[in-house]
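FAQ

Q: What does a record look like?
A: Structure on top, sequence underneath. For example:
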């Protein structure tokens, strides 16, 4: 059979396409390597919750040892928030808790990128957009604030979605096995990631039902098969005294319109806002020029995620900032359902420059913050030498609120750094993440009334008012009503201020981001 020869123009176009793909692959590989540098270079990543998780890993890995911390005990149950708790303590016995926790973070980051690539490969049969989207959001606000279990579990969810879609047209038994395995793993890893997994596949099945006009009986059976493992797992969890959390639910619409602009960077709202605006404008322009198209299944999923984001409260089952977690999930899933057809090499270069610029701008902020905290974390570890072993420590802040310091988010990574005293000084620390229903560690009964596992450091203005007997203590802060008698030391984190209570506090150590005081016992 005679095969017509390609014209010169067709040959040239094919060579250009292959060349553009090679350039994109090289750019992606370089950006991926650069994106992992902060985790490789920083002994303790400067992420808000990370040091608190590290403190818990120290406690779990030392349980049962002769010198274990006397104030905490293991409290294992089928909690849906155990990703690192199941893995890191075993690794810590081999390489130490600090290295094991950092390796877990590195694995989670790799899983985010790899899961996005796997999902796109299953949907499109090629790698195109998802990897770049994953790198742009690798240090988005939920991840850079140290929501590590969620980050790891979201990577698992991406892989689970990819595997399910790969067998979506197979027989029920195979789909049921695949779905059950993903549900069990995700329920143990993080409840919200399980929700992302179930919501994505639910929206996909609805698209399949209405878009392909499937029989109602077939649709019902597929949805039942999809939901059954999750329902069964939740029942087993409840029967085994597991729970999702204990802090309840709080709904507010206050910041939902702003979070899409501030989601891309957890340290600089200016960089995040600029990155988000540039990305939104580029996506809008590409769609207007008909070079970017969201496939019909992607439209269903995008609409579903938009409704979820509006409906989900900021605090859900004790999980803070629940609603903003929808945003990176959508950013990692939707590129698999997008088609981008750039008309020329100039467009390709412009797209790569834009993606690289956003990624590197956010990465530059992360590197600057993480490397600057090396000395701060070393200083706070050195300060534990001034603390008597077995002491009780309260964490306060010079800021006006216990919430993350949105006016300067680079201060946030210091907030929970004093929790490392549970390892270095065998101390009790007020704000260790040891909440019943969420973590497999809890304070022992004799000190449980002093624990503040769900909130941030206590504002010094409140502590000062209590010490001066000038305020009635609100119900939600009863734990600190006698702080000057119950605790031995106070760490004051945040912007440096002079000793706020010189008659009550004796300064022992100070750094740019914290001060350590011994509390003089009041009669």
């Amino acid at each position: 059979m005679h095969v017509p020869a390609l014209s010169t123009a067709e040959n040239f176009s094919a060579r250009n396409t292959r060349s553009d793909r090679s350039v994109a692959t090289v750019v992606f590989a370089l950006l991926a390597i650069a994106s992992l540098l902060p985790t490789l270079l920083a002994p303790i990543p400067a992420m808000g919750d990370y040091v608190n998780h590290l403190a818990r890993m120290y406690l779990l890995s030392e349980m049962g040892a002769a010198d274990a911390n006397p104030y905490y005990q293991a409290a294992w149950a089928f909690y849906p928030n155990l990703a690192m708790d199941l893995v890191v303590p075993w690794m810590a016995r081999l390489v130490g808790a600090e290295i094991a926790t950092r390796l877990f973070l590195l694995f989670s980051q790799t899983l985010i990128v790899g899961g996005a690539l796997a999902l796109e490969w299953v949907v499109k049969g090629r790698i195109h957009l998802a990897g770049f989207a994953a790198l742009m959001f690798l240090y988005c606000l939920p991840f850079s604030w140290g929501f590590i279990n969620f980050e790891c579990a979201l990577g698992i969810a991406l892989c689970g979605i990819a595997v399910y879609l790969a067998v979506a047209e197979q027989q029920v038994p195979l789909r049921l096995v695949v779905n059950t395995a993903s549900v069990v793993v995700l329920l143990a890893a993080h409840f919200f990631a399980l929700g992302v997994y179930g919501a994505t596949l639910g929206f996909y099945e609805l698209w399949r039902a209405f878009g392909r006009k499937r029989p109602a009986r077939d649709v019902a059976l597929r949805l039942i098969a999809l939901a059954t493992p999750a329902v069964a797992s939740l029942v087993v969890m409840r029967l085994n005294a597991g729970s999702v959390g204990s802090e309840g639910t709080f709904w507010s619409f206050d910041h939902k319109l702003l979070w899409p602009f501030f989601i891309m960077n957890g340290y600089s709202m200016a960089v995040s806002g600029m990155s988000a605006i540039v990305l939104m404008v580029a996506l809008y322009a590409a769609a207007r020029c008909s070079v970017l198209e969201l496939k019909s299944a992607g439209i269903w999923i995008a609409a579903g995620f938009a409704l979820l984001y509006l409906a989900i409260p900021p605090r859900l089952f004790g999980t803070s900032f629940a609603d903003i977690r929808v945003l990176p999930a959508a950013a990692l899933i939707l590129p698999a359902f997008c088609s981008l057809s750039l008309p020329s090499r100039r467009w390709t270069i412009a797209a790569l420059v834009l993606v690289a610029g956003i990624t590197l701008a956010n990465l530059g902020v992360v590197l600057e913050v993480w490397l600057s905290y090396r000395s701060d974390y070393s200083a706070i570890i050195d300060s534990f030498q001034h603390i008597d072993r077995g002491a009780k420590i309260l964490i306060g802040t010079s800021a006006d609120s216990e919430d993350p310091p949105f006016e300067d988010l680079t201060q946030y990574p210091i907030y929970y750094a004093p929790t490392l005293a549970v390892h270095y000084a065998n101390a009790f620390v007020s704000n260790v993440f040891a909440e019943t229903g969420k973590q497999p560690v809890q304070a022992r009964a004799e000190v449980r009334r002093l624990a503040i596992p769900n909130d941030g450091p206590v504002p010094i203005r409140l502590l000062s008012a209590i010490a001066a007997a000038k305020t009635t203590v609100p119900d939600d802060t009863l734990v600190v009503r006698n702080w000057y008698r119950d605790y031995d030391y106070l760490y004051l984190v945040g912007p440096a201020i002079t000793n706020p209570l010189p008659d009550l506090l004796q300064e022992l150590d100070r750094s740019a981001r914290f001060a350590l005081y011994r509390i003089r016992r009041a009669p």
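Q: Is there anything notable about this one?
A: The radius of gyration is 25 Å.
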